[in-house]
Amino acid sequence: MTVGKVASRRIAFTAATSAFALLLMPGPGMAQAAPAASAPSAPPADTSGEIIVTAQKRSEDIRTVPISLSVLSGNALQDQKIANYDDLSRAVPGVAFNTVAGEEGRTNIVIRGVSSTSGASTVGLYLDDVSITVPNFYRDGSIEVRLPDIARVEVLRGPQGTLYGDSSEGGTIRYITNPASADRFGATLTGDLSTTEHGGGNAATSATINLPVIADKLSLRASVNYQHDSGWVDQYSQTGALQKLGVNSSHSLTAHVSATYTPDSTLTITPAFFYQRAINDDNAAFYPDLGLWKQDKEVPEPSQDTFALGSLTIRKTMGFADLTSVSGYYRRIATRQEDGTYFNSGAFGLFFLDPIYPQYQAQNDGIIANLPSAVHIRTQYEQFSQELRLSSNDTSAGASWLKWVAGAYYATQKVHNTDFQTIGNVNSVFQSIYGTTMENSLVETTYGNPAYGQPGGGPAITLFPGNVDESDDRTYRQQQYAVFGQASIAFARGWKLDLGARYSAAHEDYNSVETGFYQIGNLGYQTPGQPASAPYLQDATSHAFLPKGTLYHDLAPTSSVYASIAKGYRLGGPTGPIVFGLTSVCGGDFNNIGQTTQPTHFDGDSLWTYEIGSKNDFANHRIRFNASGYLTNWKNIQQQIYLPTCGYYFTSNVGDARIWGAEADVSVKVMRGFSLSATASANNAKIIRSNNPIDVSVGQHLIDVPGFTASAGVNYLHQVTPTAALVGLVNYAYTGHSYGSYLLTDTNYYNPGYSVVNASLALRFGPHEVSVYVKNLFDDKTIIQRPEINTVTEGYTVHPRTIGLSLKLVD
């Protein structure tokens, strides 16, 4: 059975489940996240102080885990209306984001300043125990999970390569779903209606059901969420006439189905399936030169991101240890259309036609340079992974002083990208102006076949076959094997030493074929109408050894300190190829940055992080305070280099960086029902060695790393009756300035700081809840990023102020 058929059947199964759940919903109301099937009304006072996490692949109290770690429960995600990575970055310290072309769902995550917009990812993403990390090759961004039924999100800061492998240099984010429970039937329905400033009405609805099937043996859990968000960016014509309001509206459908089967007390089998489809009618980028939230694209830029994941987790208690097998397969298809008018049509008219036909400059610049150019990009990601691990339990030998985990990991990944670009009617328009075809003009002999028309000069090259200016077809494959282990040794009263390591080996291969005017002369170029040429091929093998050591000491029963050292690594990979040479479309850009060879590959990079931290509970768990400081030395950094004239990007190893910083969080239960919380993080991330000072110079800041972030929150619960309570919540978040480019003249070089205030007031009656809320209360309109995408300067702001009403009903 083929992979495509398997995925199609899984998607069909999920669609049927989604349809069933939708029948249970109460009309067009909507919520951004659904909590567990059963929820408490007013939360009782915390007497144990324990928050259980599985960050080290075993259940532990968060205070005893020697990692800088933040946890957001499913209820906290709902109460704070955390719907995406933008929101998450403002809720936990040390996390930032950079948006790709201002588009929802296409975001790269940054933890502790380990920032890179290209190459392999620097942050590992997991849905339960399955990696959903994708490389940053084609500007698709990280997978943004919009699951309505989340138990918690764990944000692990610092290198996590020992247990989570490469691409966890900055840290790891884990989405932990609520498991199916055989205890009781439960159902949750939520609805949400809201309105966005400068936009329109939004609506969302979700449902979760927990169904015991066989008492103490088998249970099912299913959740589904649909969401519609209005747009707030307006479309104008080239003459300045308003054409459409709110073009960047979006829609998403998410579904999750899981089962828990326990045939006996020693065996648990958990199959699960997750499906998500996110559609953006256009992106949230606007053109600052036109004004706030205005754009005048010749071509709309819609996108669709579809993700499906199937997994099977088997846990077996073997007496002396627990054996866990985690199998996962995912497929992601990210498609989008971009407006290539300026860098395709504009470049052809201004940079190619004007020099050889100056007498036609008015027609070149006024007609041909403004022909609409659509860029169609489709990337399909597929990955199968298998992890097998053995971990100690309470009956293991030495369980009182030794805890350990050891395992093996295998993954195979395929990334297939097509980039198809056209200039509308360029051949016929050229002929109407010049009275001849391009192949019989100076365009052919200057940029195509210079010997055409001469004796023995060969045939003409079809410059724009079917009006195609560029078509790329590229496939990347990777296989990875790893073994890992970690042991925690309590060698004296109150002292613990953790030692771990991971060894991995990976092989990659890459092939690329190109055609179209802008790819003439490139590696893998296929001449239209002639026998196929050999594709461009490359392959590489890499190895990595990732050790980690941590010394932990209990100062008191609820207070501890730790010190750690850990190595992080991410794989190298292919880049481009980009057409190279003095007469190529990128020739001037390469010359300006001193690039003397054609970029085709980037190497792996690595880092060492040194960290000290402390975790504390005081006053009978009424006060929690955690703090950590770190120093990171990052070597051979993978970074994106932008070529501003031709609009291409490539990935290069730019040099070394040093990052130092600190983060802290505190929560105080002032009295029953009234609590305060605050977080802060400081970061200094700079280049200390450069491979090419023209690209990146020593002393420059790493991109998209805020120097300072802080947040503060107030939570008040007033018990109205024994079964009803009012809950008020106010959160303030400040994100300091950052740098979005290494090029001093780039519009995105300096990104200002900004702040966001969110607030809500809820009435909880029994397990049910109705609430009013506002996000971005003071409607902060700061343009927080100004990226230059395909030679066009775009702007991006925080989501405008949104006011809403939500309802949750629990059975």
Describe the structure concisely for a colleague:
The chain is mainly β. The protein is 10% helix and 51% strand.
Set out the fold topology.
Elements: H1 3-23, E1 52-53, E2 60-61, E3 68-73, H2 74-79, H3 85-89, E4 95-99, E5 107-111, E6 123-127, E7 130-131, E8 150-157, H4 161-164, E9 171-177, E10 186-196, E11 201-214, E12 218-229, E13 234-236, E14 242-244, E15 250-264, E16 267-280, E17 294-295, E18 303-317, E19 321-339, H5 341-356, H6 361-366, E20 373-392, E21 402-423, H7 426-434, H8 442-447, E22 468-492, E23 495-515, E24 536-556, E25 559-570, E26 573-574, H9 587-592, E27 601-602, E28 605-618, E29 623-635, E30 638-642, E31 649-653, E32 655-671, E33 674-690, E34 708-721, E35 724-735, E36 738-739, E37 750-751, E38 754-765, E39 768-775, E40 783-785, E41 788-789, E42 792-793, E43 796-797, E44 802-810
Parallel strand pairs: 6-9, 13-17
Antiparallel strand pairs: 1-2, 3-8, 4-5, 6-7, 8-9, 10-11, 10-44, 11-12, 12-15, 13-14, 15-16, 16-18, 18-19, 19-20, 20-21, 21-22, 22-23, 23-24, 24-25, 25-28, 26-27, 28-29, 29-32, 30-31, 32-33, 33-34, 34-35, 35-38, 36-37, 38-39, 39-44, 40-43, 41-42
